[in-house]
Structures are given as structure tokens and as C-alpha cells.
Amino acid sequence: MVTCYLRYLIDPYKLKEFEHYGTLWIPLVERFGGRHHGYFLPSEGASNVALALFTFPSLAAYEHYRERSLEDAECQAAFAYAEQTRCILSYERSFFRPVFDSPGAPVTPAD
What we know:
This protein is an alpha+beta fold. The chain contains three helices and four strands. It has a four-stranded antiparallel β-sheet.
């Protein structure tokens, strides 16, 4: 399992446009076999940083999604929307593997 972490620098005056962009991508990721964990918009602190998290069963499954998204009309429309509105200034993408509690794991006392 691999989780993609996207950190966006957005135009804070185009927050509504960026939010719409996020609502376009959530069902698309799900349709291509991923599990979207949502977009996270600025609330307190920096007004120009937004995040997105989604998980695929493997890095190969993610790469397959990326290839297919380049040929999908709805994905291309979402890319075009971001380009037209210029709501995204830049982004960086990182991948993480989640660690979950396992049965029988030692419990570490909280401080």
C-alpha cells in the first residue's frame, strides 16, 4: 500500500476554484482504484498551502492510474480547469507507506 501526499501552493484568492478542482479529482481517483482521503484547505496559519492524500494498493497501481488518467477525458478536463483558473501555483508529490497498529504489538506508554 502506498499513500500519495500532495502539497499545493495555491493562490489564496482562488480558494473556491481550488476547492472545485479537488471535488473533481476525488471521484476520479476512486474510479481508478484508489482511496481518496480528501483535500485539506487552509484554515489557520498559511493561507496558500493545501494538501491532498490518497492511497493505492501499490506504487504500480498508482503508476497505472497515472497512465490511464492521461487518456481519460474527465481527468484531462480537471487538469485543464486548474490551468485555466491558475488556482495552483505549484505542488510537490511524495509517497509514504502507512503503518498501522498490529494485534499483539507492544503498547508504548504515552508521555
